[in-house]
Amino acid sequence: MRLTLITAFIALFLASAGAASAMDPENTLYIDLKDGRVVIEMRPDLAPKHVAQIKKLALEHKYDGIVFHRVIDGFMAQTGDPTGTGSGGMGEKLPAEFNKEPHTRGAVSMARTNDPDSARSQFFIVLKDSNFLDGQYTVWGRVVSGMEFVDKIKKGAPGSGAVSSPDKMIKVRLASDPNP
Fold first, then answer.
1. In total, how many domains does the chain have?
2. Which of 100, 106, 123, 180 is most buried, taking the most CB atoms under 10 A from its CB?
């Protein structure tokens, strides 16, 4: 009996390790934070234009050094603004690609203004289920590992005085990059 349990555990471990390595490197995003690496599975099947923009900016290293300018405990961590104020962006404005993917913990979604077609480079990672956002913001990915590092990002927002030196994305790369 004991040998059967050990064999079953080893099979389960190898299957889960195989599943993790089976992720498509072209649609896997690495975000290096001060505490460790966050791995995001990008979903071009849900939001092809948004994923293409994220990939383009990552390949150009545009996200490197960008701060988390708005981090609300129990809600989300927002980044992607080169000005660090929450009012800037990079790339073309994107048409909304709202989908049925829920804004649950670990979802990665685009930030925007009141105009649904105003997303550019800013995105947020959901810290706690926030289903009231469903269908109003474009989910384009999900954190598959490293959520414990996202949880450690300093909390605060522009003008709040809460964070004088916000945490940043040190390096953002696609898994397919020659030097991820």
1. 1
2. 123
pLDDT single digits (tens) 94-134: 999 999 999 999 999 999 999 999 999 999 999 999 999 99
Cα separations (Å) of 168 from 18, 98, 121? Answer: 31, 27, 15
Cα–Cα distance measured from residue 111 to residue 103, given in angstroms and rounded to the nearest whole number: 13
Beta-carbon contacts of residue 23 (< 8 Å; ≥ 6 apart): 39, 41, 144, 175
Query: Which of 179, 178, 172, 176 has its CA nearest to residue 58?
Result: 172
Encode pLDDT of 136-172 as tens digits: 999 999 999 999 999 999 998 765 555 568 999 999 9
43 with 67: CB under 8 angstroms? no
Q: In which domain, by residue range, is 139 found?
A: 27-165
Examine residue 59 and state whether it is found in any structural domain, yes or no. yes
SS3 breakdown of the chain: % helix, strand, coil, rounded to 5?
25, 25, 50
Give me the pLDDT at residue 165, please: 86
159 token code pair? 């003008």
Confirm whether 179 is domain-assigned: no
The CATH number assigned to the domain holding 80 equals 2.40.100.10
Distance CA 180, CA 162 (A): 32
